[in-house]
UniProtKB/TrEMBL annotation:
Gene Ontology annotations of biological process type: lactate catabolic process
Keywords noted in UniProt: FAD, Flavoprotein, Oxidoreductase
Organism: Kibdelosporangium aridum
Domain (FAD-binding PCMH-type): residue spans on this chain: 47-233
Protein name per Swiss-Prot or TrEMBL: FAD-binding oxidoreductase
Keyword Oxidoreductase: yes
Any one GO molecular-function label of the UniProt entry: D-lactate dehydrogenase (NAD+) activity
A Pfam family hit: FAD_binding_4
Taxonomy, superkingdom: Bacteria
Keyword Hydrolase appears in the UniProt entry: no
Chain segments annotated as transmembrane: none
Amino acid sequence: MDAQLVDQEAVARAVDAIEKALGTDAVLRSRADLDEFRDPFWVLGSDDNDVAAAVMPASVEEVQAVVRIANEFKVPLWTVSTGRNYGYGGASPRVPGSILVNLSRMNRVLEVNSELGYAVVEPGVRWFDLVDVLEDHGGEWWSSIPDLGWGSVIGNSLEYGRGHTRIGSHAENVVGMEVVLPNGELMRTGMGAMEGNRAFHAYPFGFGPMVDGLFFQSNMGIVTQIGWRLMKRPEKYASCWVHFDGDEIIVPVIDAMRELMLDETINNYPFLGRGVAANAEGRPDLDPNSQKWALRFALYGYDEIVEAKWRIVERVLGAIAGVEIGHKMYDGTDRVGPLDGIHDDKVQAGIPGMELLDLYKVPFGPDTGHLDFSPVGPLIGAEVLKMIRMVRSMYEEFGEPYAAGCMLLPNSILVVSVMFFDPKDAEKTKRIYDNYDPMLKRIAAEGYGLYRSHIFKMDAVAATFDFNNHAYLRFVETIKDAVDPNGILQAGKQGIWPQKLRAQRGR
Ligand code: ADP
């Protein structure tokens, strides 16, 4: 990245103007305050991706004011909701010296609709906050949640984050958005494009093209509100597991799971793992020679339905040689108490926690960093085994233990793997990030793309989406130039650069 990319004088004047508009307590400039926003998983103490200041608007009008000022001074902004995007850059901007727009003060749950099953949330609403509010409303509705409860509903969903309940495909739970556009204008999508529309968060489409997708993994706007689909609390919930030794058994297990998911016997999003948070005892297992795998999934519904589904699952999966299978049955009303501290059972019941973070600290202590490598493939047993072997062999080449956490959808799979390192060790940390490039090349050559990436790797990943000489990126950048002519928002995110900074691609 060019050192003089950002006009620091213009940034300083813009921050002054923002302070005038929002008040002094909405602006952080001191190094100590800003250190909090460094990527904790990059070389400890590095100033490589520092922000110039952080601004914290408390309302939509204040977000609009920030965007208008950024246009006036032509300075770059980088938006986060809570900035917990760990493993992908945290709150760090792609362009150093940007102004961080931190939305954590906009933390209201604006509505819980108990008849239709949705909530309306602002960007600062964390999973912990939303679930507390749902409990206060009687606990009749569950939210899907990711593994850690401290992040935000909006930040995670916009990144195509995932959970482990029946509604665990988070981007698909977003129904109706409110967005501050790069020119400062406020827009609502879907039915919300009509003033006072009664189905804004109930019906996902609108009249005309669906533009919601433009705000996922992108830099076309600042999302200030979304409708969020909830799941009705089931009468019973069975937390189920399958354990086996040896990579080969992945093939029949995956093929059986696909059938069970496509016929909706299993209708949550199962998780297949080895290594941290995935071994049978729920303890980290980074033995590079270990061949132990653990699959978990859930069944929900009325008592009789869950019982019947379990019998089918037991018959189908139990017939596979070499697998052990089991389940625990809960009432839908079992919350804190019966499920306390049991990460696997909690996440499938929409109870947020922080247990996984403790496990992730095991390899190198409290500062342990990790970088995720996450290719997507079709849910075909033989192909999943091929992908896992390919990724595992690269870990072996690098001399790193292979820890995997694969997320199953009914017909696809995210073959996520995790490289651990100690950010205090600068040389090793840089080597881990360098390992990523040959992995990306090899996996893309086989026809697999990544679902998400760290800010440092966004150009490289975007370059692998190369059909017809990168027609997709050309189209998206044409839109970017039209809606953000000054290139103020999230430059370089997902490899999408505004015209004036396009020469930065790949730097
Ligand atoms: P988390 O919920 O995990 O804390 P972050 O706040 O770190 O998530 O957001 C993850 C990424 O999603 C950010 O880097 C940013 O690119 C994007 N993002 C987050 N919130 C918004 C928002 N309100 N509008 C637009 N993009 C956002």
